[in-house]
Amino acid sequence: MMVAGKVKKPGKRGRKPAKIDLKAKLERSRQSARECRARKKLRYQYLEELVSSKERAICALREELEMYKQWCSAMDQGKIPSEIKALLTGDDQKLPQGGSSTKTSKNSKNSISSNV
């Protein structure tokens, strides 16, 4: 064949496949499969841990929501829950969840006292 002044030989294009030992090729394939399974197992373990931590967070938030619902229903009936009284008086020892609500209690206390 003549293409643009060059003579081409008919046949396959590109590199010729190297003569690879069949056993070595199979062993590489097996090793690759083992590594893939190991990565997959690690990925699933990570995802399972992530799901369980999110489920624990959801349970904690549901409990907190239920507590707030109870507070609201008590306030609708004209009663002030002892936890809210503790927030208003600044008594941090009576708080049901001391960690995250401390900041909120200070901010809400300041905003309540500034409105009075």
From TrEMBL:
A GO molecular-function annotation: DNA binding
Cellular component annotations (GO), alphabetically ordered: nucleus
Statement: the UniProt record of this protein carries the keyword ATP-binding: no
BZIP domain: residues covered: 22-71
Biased amino acid composition, Low complexity: 100-116
Chain intervals for the UniProt region annotation (Disordered): 88-116
Any one of the GO BP annotations: cell differentiation
Protein name: cAMP-responsive element-binding protein-like 2
Underlying gene: CREBL2
